[in-house]
Specification:
Layout (H helix, E strand, L loop, with lengths): L8 H21 L7 H31 L12 H26 L7 H33 L8 H30 L3 E8 L10 E6 L10 H14 L3 E5 L7 H8 L11 E4 L2 H5 L3 H10 L2 E3 L3 E6 L7 E6 L4 H4 L9 H4 L9 E4 L3 H10 L5 E4 L11 H7 L5 E5 L3 E5 L17 E8 L2
Parallel strand pairs: 1-12, 2-3, 3-4, 4-5, 7-8, 8-9, 9-11
Antiparallel strand pairs: 2-12, 6-7, 10-11
C-alpha cells in the first residue's frame, strides 16, 4: 500500500484540499451554532484561503514546470536573463497565492497597492492556467491524430517549447486588456420593462439598479464616489442595491461607504443582502450603517412605493435575504419569501429584490404573480475563462429575461468587480430601468 509520503505532490495537494473542504462543511453544519459570529467569520476566511491555496499549488507546480523547468537544459538556462525570469515567476506565484490573505488583513478606505498587485496576479494566474491546459490538450490531440509520440523529432520539441511562450504572451495581453476594461467607469444601460398592473400614474418611473460593488481589498471610496455621482446624474425615482455591497466589516471600511449618504432618490434607496455580506459575519452592523445613510435594508420585508401623482396608486417593493444565510445558518436570516411578500397581493404590481438568480427562480416558482425580479451575483462571469462557469451555474445569467406572460427578471452584470480588478467578456454596469405601465 502506498503511503502518503510516497504520493506525488499533486496527489498530496488533492488530499489536503479534501481535508480542508471537509472541515469547511463540518464548520458550516455542526459548529455553526456553537461558535460566535466573529470566530466563525475568521475560521471561514482561513479555511477558504487554505482551500484555495492548496488547490492552486497544483496549478503552480504546472506553471513552474512549464515556464521554468522545461528550459533548464537549454543553453540560456545559465544566463542572467533566465535568473531574472525565475525570480519573476516566483514573485508572480507568491502574489497570486497571497491574494486570498489580503481580504482579512489589508482592507481600508482605499485599496493597498499590494492588494491590487496580488489580485491582478491571481487574474493572470487563472488565464495562464487556462491557456497552458488548453494548448497542452491541443498538442496531445495533435499527437494522437498524427500518430506521433513525444519523441517524434525536433519539430515536436519546438512545438512543446512554444506552448508556454504562447500561453504567457496571451496571458499578458489579456491581463492588460482586462485591467483597462475594469478601470473604465461602469456603462449606463437603459432598459424599459413593462410591469403588469403598474398604475398609469407611475408610467416611466425610473429605478437605478446597483449590484456587486464589493467594497474591500480592490474597491474603495474613490470608485464608490464615482458610482454615486453617476447615479445622481440619472435622477432616479428609486435606487436599489441588490447585494454584495461589501467584503469587509462595517467598522473597518466605514470611511469608504460615506459617499452612499449622497444618494437622494425621492422614493427611497433600498438594499438587500448578498452572499458576501454574510461572509463578513457583520450584517447587523451593516444594516445600522446603511440606515444612518438613509438607505433602507429590506430584510425579508416590503414597502409600498406610492405614486407621486396619486396616493391611491402604489406597487409593492419587496426584498429577501440572500440564500447563503441559510447555508451558513446565520441566525435570524435566510430567504423567507412569505414574510417578504406579506401584504403584497396580486391586485398590485410586485417587484422583488433577490441577490442570486437561483433565488429569483425559487421565488417565481412559489409566487408566479411576481412581476419583476432584480438580481445580480453573476458579474456576467466577470472575466474569461470564468464566464462559462457562471453561465452554467445560474438559471439567469445576465440581462433581461421574460418568464411566463407577465413576469420579467433582470440580472445585473455588477457595478464593479470582486477582488480581481479585471473584466474580460463582461462590462461593469449601472442599470437605468424604466418601468412601463401596460
Amino acid at each position: 500500500m502506498i503511503s502518503f509520503k510516497q504520493l506525488p505532490l499533486e496527489a498530496k495537494a488533492a488530499v489536503a484540499a479534501g481535508v480542508v473542504f471537509f472541515s469547511m462543511m463540518l464548520s458550516r453544519s455542526y459548529l455553526a451554532e456553537k461558535l460566535d459570529l466573529r470566530t466563525r467569520h475568521w475560521l471561514l476566511r482561513l479555511q477558504m484561503a487554505l482551500f484555495a491555496n492548496i488547490l492552486m499549488s497544483m496549478g503552480s507546480l504546472h506553471v513552474w514546470r512549464s515556464t521554468v523547468t522545461m528550459f533548464t537544459r537549454s543553453s540560456a538556462a545559465s544566463s542572467f536573463c533566465f535568473m531574472l525570469w525565475k525570480i519573476a515567476v516566483v514573485m508572480f506565484l507568491v502574489l497570486a497565492h497571497s491574494s486570498f490573505f489580503t481580504l482579512p488583513f489589508l482592507v481600508a478606505e482605499e485599496p493597498y497597492f499590494f492588494s491590487l498587485a496580488a489580485y491582478t496576479c491571481l487574474g493572470a494566474y487563472i488565464i495562464l492556467i487556462f491557456f497552458l491546459f488548453t494548448l497542452g490538450s491541443v498538442e496531445q490531440a495533435y499527437k494522437f491524430l498524427a500518430r506521433r509520440d513525444a519523441k517524434a523529432g525536433t519539430g515536436n520539441k519546438n512545438r512543446t517549447a512554444m506552448k508556454p511562450v504562447l500561453a504567457v504572451v496571451l496571458t499578458v495581453v489579456l491581463t492588460v486588456v482586462g485591467l483597462l476594461n475594469a478601470s473604465q467607469p461602469p456603462t449606463v444601460n437603459s432598459v424599459e420593462i413593462p410591469v403588469h398592473k403598474l398604475p398609469s400614474t407611475m408610467n416611466n418611473l425610473k429605478v437605478v439598479l446597483l449590484s456587486d460593488i464589493h467594497l474591500g481589498p480592490t474597491v474603495g471610496k474613490t470608485k464608490l464616489a464615482m458610482i454615486v455621482r453617476m447615479v445622481k446624474a440619472l435622477k432616479p425615482d428609486i435606487t436599489v442595491i441588490v447585494g454584495d455591497l461589501t467584503d469587509a466589516e462595517a467598522a473597518i471600511i466605514r470611511p469608504a461607504v460615506e459617499p452612499l449618504g449622497e444618494l437622494d432618490s425621492p422614493l427611497g434607496t433600498y438594499f438587500v443582502t448578498g452572499n458576501h455580506e454574510y461572509y463578513t459575519s457583520d450584517v447587523s452592523n451593516w444594516f445600522e450603517l446603511l440606515k444612518s445613510f438613509n438607505i433602507q435594508p429590506l430584510h425579508n420585508e416590503n414597502v409600498k412605493i406610492v405614486s407621486p401623482k396619486s396616493t391611491y396608486d402604489w406597487f409593492c417593493l419587496a426584498g429577501v435575504d440572500d440564500i447563503e444565510a441559510d447555508v451558513l445558518r446565520y441566525s435570524g436570516h435566510g430567504m423567507d419569501l412569505k414574510k417578504a411578500l406579506r401584504g403584497c397581493s396580486s391586485e398590485h404590481a410586485i417587484v422583488l429584490l433577490a441577490h442570486q438568480p437561483v433565488a429569483a427562480k425559487w421565488a417565481l416558482q412559489e409566487r408566479p404573480d411576481i412581476n419583476l425580479v432584480l438580481s445580480g451575483h453573476t458579474h456576467g462571469g466577470q472575466m474569461f475563462p470564468l464566464n462559462a462557469g457562471a453561465y452554467l451555474l445560474n438559471p439567469f445569467f445576465v440581462g433581461l429575461y421574460k418568464v411566463g406572460q407577465n413576469t420579467f427578471v433582470y440580472v445585473s452584470p455588477g457595478t464593479m468587480y470582486f477582488g480581481i480588478p479585471m473584466r474580460l467578456g463582461s462590462r461593469a454596469e449601472i442599470t437605468e430601468i424604466i418601468l412601463r405601465s401596460p
